[in-house]
Fold:
Amino acid sequence: MRHLNVAYLVLLLSVAACTKKKDGAADVPLVDVPKASYRPRLADRDFVSSTFKSLYKSSDGLAATDTDVENYVQAMISGHSSFFGGPCQYYDEASCSGTQRDQDAFAAVIPTSSSPREALRLRVCFTLSGYDVSAAQALDKAGLTLSSSGDAQNLEAAYKLFFPSRALSPTGASLLLKNHAAWQSQFDIAVAWKLTLASICASPGWQVP
Amino acid sequence: MKTRRRLSRAHISRRDLLRGFGVAGGLATAGSVLAMFRATANGLAGDLQNRALGVLPRNYVFIQSEGAPARWMWDLFLNPNGETLAANSGMATNFALSGGRYVTPVFETVDFFSANLNRNFRLPMLWGTSIPVSGGGTVPMTHLLANLLSIRGVDVGDSGHAGAQAKMTVLGASSPSLGGAVADASSKVIPALAIDVRELRFRSRSEASLVSMNSTFGGTNMLQDLFGTFDASDVDPTFAAQLEAQMPSVLAAADSLSENLNLYSGSLAADRNKALDLMMSGMGDLNAAWNDLYVKYLLLIQRALDTVIPGINDAPVGNNYPTNARDAKYCFNSTGDILTHNDLRTMLQTGHSTQPTMVTFLAEHFAVAEFCLLNGYSNSIHINAGALFNLHPQINGSPAAGFGQMFQNPDMHFHGIFPGTYLSALYYCALSACLYELINKLKSRSLFNDTVIHLAGEFNRKPRQDGTGSDHAPQASNVSIWSGSVQGPLIIGDILKHSGENWERYGDYPGTWGFGAHSMGGGTVSISTGHVLASLAQLLRVPNPAANNDSLIYVSDSTVSSLWGVASMVDNT
Structure:
């Protein structure tokens, strides 16, 4: 085995020594060769839309605005397979029918970041966090209301809405606490919670599975 | 035409949403409220300044000629210096007249004097025609030659469509693609864009984002699809005003929450900031912009397809003996169906009431490219050159049911020389008209010197001598490049007079059709994809992605010149 390893090393060294440009051109150090890197892989439209729907719709699914949220998220996220990727859901006729299906045939299996994708995501974040009803419905999933205290425990619970399996960093916790207090004093506690929700939602990291 | 309903509009409007949440009134756009958040500049003015200093890459437009249609009748210049071609009766540029009809396919050329270079060129017959321009009128197609760099005799090294497509803009798994390298230095809202490009291997060093889209039929407003995403008017205006006041704190918290994730990437934040930028500044009237651009290119294409070209369609096309006696020179599809039009011109009908002949997505793609380039939204754009569709073929004396909607498949294995020559001529007129319009627009904004348009199919084709079609010829590929920095026509690449060097030479594919001569590497190799990419990289001002290959051109401040001398034909008789 040791001999094989030595032979392999010698082979590698000899290959490296023989690496030359073709066509008689001078050698170019390999370090000058530009290397490609890869963009972060993100969650697909099914994950993103499910996150939005599960948070901003009512817990019992009976609120009058649930259909609005459902349709809005469907339009903004599921309907944009070019940017959010992922297969259409076979049992979801709206995302798998007609011309939409043509688009879906070419949707990325593992999507990556883009400005249009971020624009759509931010619009949903800002729109649904900005209305009392949908903001309250999201906070309800964390056992909170628009008048709950903006303490560390409650802010961490809000953070967990979007980052359920990740710990809140001390820096993040500190910023959320400081911002919430400032917003409460400048506006009111409901606005402070809506801005807090928008901040957490606007954080791009929850799209990284 | 059918219009696709945009889900975002069709399912729920902002007014509906407001009503659903019990909010009335207050329909001022969030775009204006949020305007003061602008975090990044569009960068167009800065780009122009930096380009003038030679710092930034040139704009890159890749046009994929998908399916690898034959190009010997257009931009594959087989005998630009007047060389004598070895004949292949399966290759034609036009038809010869007999008894008032076009019944004999022929390969003919026209001579063109280049004032740029003060010399004559011999070009395929089609270059003798004119192409429509926007606003009416025509110009000689030869206007496209003034800034053309043509590389021929390229060995792609892959005879399959997908593999060859993947190599058009990138070489190895560890190299950035051309579009990726341009995007690496881009500050644009959309660092790179691809529409309907197959097997695109986009790779970037700096994790630049590629927006990849696909068209649907019916003139869908692609600007709305792409840039309507930045319309922030659905945000509650009261909340938008509060966001406005607190955006720095909101973004600081948002960044902090993702900071501790190892997977968090700077490109995500960059994309988010660019998105915010456009959401705040607004995009203007995208419908008006689309109508202007799309209709302009649509009309150009229609007019180009209606062009009367001597030797092509100024007389009935096809022999006048009983059409059921026609052979595979009139074949139109892989099942062996023979066209039975008395006059092949009736298969192309731009004025058809329900199925007008058109080129798939060509107008859409050029409209988006022009919009993005002229407004500085993207400088790495990949589009598809499309193909004819809504043709009206007649089989066995009657319109082919369910066949008229079919595309003219550019992979022309079974396109007999009659329909192949006739349809290709008109298709290339349409493509030329679009190219000329885009180039003119770039010139009008002083952007053409800093733009490179790269047109490539997977490979070229080898014509079957019996005129029944053509097959893949990866050793005979050609690439056309337009840029204001090129004084053309600059033609590079040696080709063989007698097809391939092995069995093809005396087989079914004789004659001169662009097989690359082994003039490089001490006479052992022909031009490869790597040489083409290295040349394009130099022109684009990006690192050479092909470490083992040199550029074929030398690019100075004011000129582009060949490092391989005059393109020649090697007589391997």
Chain B touches chain A through 91 residues (CB under 8 Å). Residues 5 and 11 of chain B are 9 Å apart (CA to CA).
